[in-house]
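<goal> How does this chain fold?
<sample>
Here is the protein in question

***
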Amino acid sequence: MKIKCLDKGYIEVMSNTCKGDLLVVNAARCSFDKEHEVFDYHKDSKLIDYLAKHQHLLPFRHPQATLRIHAPIFVLRQLGKHQVGFSWSEVSRRYITNRPEFYYPEPEEWRPAAENVKQGSSDEPLPEYVQKYSDESLEETYSLALHYYDAMLDDGVCAEQARMLLPQSMYTTTVTTGSLLGWFHMFKLRSEAHTQRESQAYAAAVNEAMSYLFPESWRALCEHSL
């Protein structure tokens, strides 16, 4: 399962706990030394709703999902603030020198600053000349960064230092494993209205993936926690 984000980004499901919804209810029933072998959509869905509604969240820590995330660095650093319940492995440009890939927003995606700095940006459109200038500035910056990056490597500078020239809009890739509850916390915070729009795109993709992998648990968490 692969879900597109932004111009070149994506998240891809690499592995996940099979029968994750069943694991949630069996973890909850462990206190009474009970276990179901097959998910009962009547009884077990009710139990999942009860757990989510009353914030008995420990059972939601047991199922896990591993996603391959391809995102601009500035987006990934926002997602990466969520450390509890996660393990991350990331592509390292200490060791690879293949051509960097950069994020290019569409001209109409350039946004003005918001009056409230905590909001980051507003939804008001920018004048076309500002959009055009921003596009041209971005392209010029990328071209210069690539030129000097390649020149450093050609001159024998090590990749781990030459990478300092590359902008934070460069795409990188991680393999990220998180608990169901961890992914929910990430989705909840990164889908809020004041979150940067580019990060919201990845939160939406996580929502789509988790809804598919753990339908009953994810539905209950969203209904009772958002």
